[in-house]
Design a protein that fits this description.
Elements (H helix, E strand, L loop, with lengths): L2 E4 L2 E7 L1 H19 L5 E6 L3 H10 L6 E11 L6 E6 L9 E9 L3 H12 L4 E9 L12 E5 L5 E2 L15 E4 L3
Parallel strand pairs: 3-4, 3-6, 6-7, 7-8
Antiparallel strand pairs: 1-2, 2-10, 4-5, 9-10
Helix pairs in contact: 1-2
Bound molecules: inosinic acid and magnesium ion.
Length: about 180
């Protein structure tokens, strides 16, 4: 499909599934080399990263790697001023573990900044970030992103796990908002 319409917006094809999987393979090879003799815990951040996680794990060769899934929900705490992030689904200890966070997209870096700090506080031994996409010009938080699939411009994209108001996650290719 060259174009796709979701809700009120039209998107055009940016990268095919094959192109995305080539980028995933390059990440996978680096991770395999870095973690070959380690016992990493890959923590996939739902919902957006489900497709990247599946494609990445199929291509990774780390015999003692584990995979788990979490969800981060943000809500306004009535008794404090800031936004509180709540972590759902992490049902095991990460003390002393080598963590690889598997994320769909790093935009401002806010989500990853908060998650890395939480895992540090909880006693992880090391924490790295693998993201399918990053918008380097949008980054506002001091984070180190160790493995990147594709760098993007500051345009809104859908597909390969990413949604526009919950539509488009299941598209195997990546689409960008078509301004025309
Ligand atoms: P950050 O906390 O600002 O880095 O935001 C990251 C999150 O925003 C990602 O995990 C996505 O869920 C969402 N996001 C950022 N850019 C896009 C986009 O272009 N399309 C869909 N979701 C996006
Ligand atoms: Mg996300």
């Amino acid at each position: 499909m060259e174009k796709v319409t979701l809700h009120d917006k039209t998107f055009r094809l940016l990268y095919s599934h094959d192109e995305l999987c080539d980028a995933v393979k390059m990440c996978a090879d680096k991770i395999s080399a870095d973690y070959k003799d380690k016992e990493p815990l890959f923590i996939s951040v739902l919902n957006g990263s489900f497709m990247f996680t599946a494609e990445l794990m199929k291509r990774i060769d780390v015999p003692k790697g584990e995979v788990c899934f979490i969800k981060v929900s943000s809500y306004q705490d009535m008794e404090s001023t800031g936004t509180v992030s709540h972590l759902i689904g992490l049902n095991r200890t990460i003390v002393g573990r080598d963590i690889v966070i598997v994320e769909d997209m790093v935009d401002s870096g806010c989500s990853m900044y908060n998650l890395v700090n939480k895992f540090k506080e909880d006693g992880a031994r090391s924490i790295r970030i693998a993201t399918m996409f990053i918008k380097p010009n949008a980054l506002k938080f001091p984070i180190t992103v160790n493995y990147v699939g594709k760098e993007l411009e500051n345009d809104f994209v859908v597909g390969f796990g990413l949604d526009y108001n919950e539509y488009g996650r299941q598209l195997s290719d990546l689409y960008v908002l078509d301004e025309n």
